[in-house]
Design a protein that fits this description.
heterodimer; A: alpha/beta; 8 helices
C-alpha cells in the first residue's frame, strides 16, 4: 500500500560556495529530521563530494539521502541530476569536473567550499571553480544523467537567471526532463498560469536551501511504497499507484 | 542597410552561405538570455550573442530577426547550424567580443530602436 513521503530534493551543503558554512551534512540531516522530512537530495553546484557523508549520517536518523549534483550547463542552465548510488553520482561528477570551466575558486568573491566529515570537522577545501559553468550543452547533460541511470530535473524554471526558460526562452524540444522544479518563489496557482504548457512533465518543488532555516520551506509529497530512488522514479512516471503531489 | 554590406564591412564569417543575405537590417540587440531577446528584440534586428544552443534559431525565427552574430570565436553547435540553414536564418561569426562588435555596428549607424 503506497504511503506519503515528504521530500526536499534540492539542498546545498557548505561545499557550495554560495551556501552558509552552517550547512554541514550533520546539521542538514538534523534539521530535516526535526521537520519530518523523509527524503532529501544533496545537490551542490557541480560536485557530489558531500553525498556519501550525508547519506551515512542520515541512515542513523531514518532519512533517505539521494545523491545529486546541480550541474551548470554551457548555456548557464542549472540541471539537477539525481542518482541511485554514490558511484553513479561520482561518475557524473567525473564528467562534470573534466568539462568545468578552469580556474580556482576565489573565496573572497564566491565563498568557501568546505569539505567536512560526519562530526562537522573540516577535512579541506574544494579548489575548483564550482560556481562556474561546464562546456556541456543542456541537451547533453540530460543524456549523460540518463546514461548514469539518473533523473534529470530542470532547476527552478521560474527563475530568470540559471533557469532553462530564462536562459533559453523555452524548454527545447527533445530534451527529456524527468521533472521540472518550481522554486519556493512561485506558488502553485501562479506556476499553473505561467507554465501550464509544460504540465505533461511532472513538477516538483523544493527549498534550494543555502541556509539551515531554508530547508523544507518547500517540499514535494510522493505517494510510494518505500523511500527509495527506484520508487521516486516510478512516482514521477505515475506507475502502479505511485504519484507526485504538486 | 543590407546584411551583406555589414558582413563585408566587418569581415564577418558567414556560416550559412545559402541564407539570403540581401535582407535589410533595421537595428541590433545584444543579449545572451533568450527570454530577454524574445521580449526586447525587434523584427529586422541583428542579434549579437555567445549562446550557440539550437534554441537561438527558433528565437530568431519567431522574432523575424535579420540574423545572428556569434562573437568571441564561438561557432554554432552542429544542430543549430543545420536548423539555421533549414529556417533560412543567417548565422555569422567573428573573433570580436560583443562589446567591440556592438561598437562597430553602432558606428555603421545601427541602433537598438
Amino acid at each position: 500500500m503506497p504511503v506519503e513521503f515528504r521530500a526536499d530534493l534540492h539542498i546545498h551543503t557548505c561545499l557550495s560556495p554560495c551556501s552558509e558554512l552552517s550547512m554541514t551534512p550533520l546539521r542538514i540531516v538534523e534539521r530535516a529530521a526535526s521537520l519530518g522530512i523523509n527524503i532529501i537530495a544533496v545537490c551542490d553546484h557541480n560536485t557530489a563530494e558531500h553525498v556519501e557523508v550525508t547519506s551515512m549520517i542520515a541512515k542513523k536518523k531514518g532519512i533517505r539521502v539521494i545523491s545529486g549534483i546541480e550541474i551548470n550547463s554551457a548555456e548557464e542552465v542549472h540541471v539537477l541530476g539525481l542518482f541511485e548510488s554514490v558511484t553513479d553520482a561520482f561518475n557524473m561528477q567525473a564528467v562534470v569536473y573534466e568539462n568545468l570551466q578552469s580556474g580556482e575558486n576565489a573565496e573572497e568573491a564566491f565563498g568557501m567550499q568546505v569539505l567536512v566529515n560526519e562530526s562537522d570537522e573540516v577535512l579541506g577545501f574544494n579548489k575548483r571553480l564550482l560556481i562556474g559553468a561546464t562546456d556541456i550543452s543542456v541537451n547533453r547533460i540530460v543524456e549523460l544523467i540518463h546514461g548514469f541511470n539518473g533523473l534529470a530535473i530542470a532547476s527552478h524554471i521560474d527563475r530568470e537567471g540559471f533557469g532553462i526558460i530564462g536562459q533559453l526562452g523555452f524548454i527545447p524540444e527533445g530534451v527529456e526532463f524527468d521533472a521540472l522544479e518550481i522554486s519556493y518563489r512561485t506558488n502553485r496557482a501562479k506556476a499553473h498560469e505561467m507554465f501550464g504548457q509544460y504540465r505533461h512533465i511532472p513538477w516538483i518543488t523544493s527549498s534550494d536551501a543555502h541556509r539551515l532555516e531554508d530547508i523544507g520551506r518547500k517540499t514535494t509529497e510522493f505517494i510510494m511504497e518505500h523511500s527509495t530512488f527506484e520508487e521516486l522514479k516510478l512516482a514521477l512516471k505515475g506507475i502502479e499507484g505511485r504519484k507526485v503531489i504538486f | 542597410m543590407k546584411l551583406q554590406e555589414i558582413i563585408d564591412s566587418l569581415s564577418l564569417k558567414v556560416e550559412t552561405p545559402s541564407a539570403d543575405l540581401s535582407r535589410e537590417v533595421k537595428g541590433a540587440y545584444v543579449s545572451d538570455m533568450l527570454s530577454d531577446v524574445m521580449g526586447n528584440s525587434k523584427e529586422g534586428f541583428l542579434w549579437i550573442t555567445i549562446q550557440v544552443h539550437l534554441n537561438i534559431v527558433a528565437v530568431a525565427s519567431l522574432k523575424e530577426l535579420a540574423g545572428i552574430i556569434l562573437v568571441n570565436n564561438r561557432g554554432p553547435a552542429e544542430d543549430t547550424l543545420k536548423k539555421a540553414i533549414e529556417e533560412n536564418i543567417p548565422v555569422m561569426t567573428t573573433p570580436l567580443p560583443a562589446f567591440d562588435l556592438a561598437g562597430r555596428l553602432y558606428s555603421l549607424g545601427l541602433r537598438c530602436r
